[in-house]
Amino acid sequence: MKNLLISLILSAGLVTVAHAGDAEAGKAKSATCAACHGADGNSMAPTFPKIAGQGERFLIKQIKDIRDGNRTSGQVASMMPFVTGLSDEDIADLAAYFAAQAPTAGGAKEELVELGESIYRGGIASKNVPACLACHGPSGAGVDAAGFPRLAGQHDAYTAAQLKHFSNGERTNDGDSKMMRDIAYRLHEKEIEAVSSYIQGLR
To answer: Which residues pair with 129 in a beta bridge?
Structure first.
C-alpha cells in the first residue's frame, strides 16, 4: 500500500528528482539560514521550522517553491531575498547539509496527547481524515523517497500554522492532488492544536 501511495505521489509531480548535494559545500553556504533556522537547522523560535534532519528531497522542493514563487504563505516571504539568487546546485548543497544534522526533540502538552495521538495514528474516520503516520511514519521520520517531510519534534506552533495555511488555501504547494489541503480542511482548530502538539513530542 505504501509503495502504491509513493508511486502515485511521484506520478502526480509532487516531487522531482533531486541533484546530488554536497553537505560540506552546503555548510559553507548556510550562514544566512542560521539567523532563523539555527546554525544546525534547529531553530529556537517556534515560528521558524526546524530543518535539521529533514529529508533532502523535501527541502529541495520547498526552497525551490519559495524561490520560484510557488509557496508564498505565512512567513516564507521573508526568505525570498535569501533564496532568489540560489542555483539548483546551491539548494541541493544546503539540503544535503541540513539533512545531515541531528534534530532536537520537543515535548507534547499532556492534556492534548490522547486526541493528538488518536489523530496521528488513527485519523478521523467520520471525516475521512487518514492517519498522519500513513505518509509521515509511525515515529514522524517522514519518507524522503516520496518527499514526505519529517515531522517529529517540529515546533507545534509552526505545524499548526502550516495546517491552517493548507486549510484556508493560502498554501497550495502540495500538488494537484491537494492532499494536505483536503486533509487540513476537515480538521477543526482543537484537532489541529492537538495533533501539532503530539507531533512536537514525537522522537
So the answer is: 124
